[in-house]
């Protein structure tokens, strides 16, 4: 696969009932991270750091323009974050769902649903999430 842009991406998020909802049109941007913990194991005989990798993790922040209209909108999906404690599958397809394109699926706990009204009138939201089930984040293809 050649170098590419981020146009045409797709993100699916389960609603609180476990139904995957394609929310790509409601997101204006997203950020995700797949960090690993690191332990310093440098002995006193070393002149440089020595480390080993520890647990894998995942976090994301999904952001966009508020959409209160459809039962499948981001508001319908994320408005239940304060009142439910369910894992939600998040499927990030950075360049779309065409066969062979990369995707990253994770069970995610969303920790907040933040709505912001700027002084210029924009109504936006952010939904931060973290890895829920101890499964190592692993890239696959559609």
Concise structural overview:
This protein is mainly beta and 142 residues long.
**Care to count the β-strands?**
11
**H/I helix tally:** 1
Note the gap between the termini.
14 Å
Low-confidence stretches: none
- Globally, the shape reads globular
Sheet/helix structural class: mainly beta
Strand content: over 45%
Q: What is the gyration radius calculated from CA atoms?
A: 18 Å
Give the helix proportion (percent range).
under 10%
Nearest-integer average pLDDT: 94
Query: How would you sum up the major sheet?
Result: 9 strands, antiparallel
- The SSE string, one letter per element, is EEEEEEHEEEEE
Describe the 3D structure.
- 4% of the residues lie in helices and 46% in strands.
- The chain is mainly beta and 142 residues long.
- The chain has a domain at 10-32 and 62-135.
- Strands 1, 2, 3, 6, 7, 8, 9, 10 and 11 form a 9-stranded antiparallel beta sheet that branches. It has a two-stranded antiparallel ribbon with strand order 4-5.
- The protein is globular.
- The relative contact order is 0.24.
- The mean pLDDT is 94.
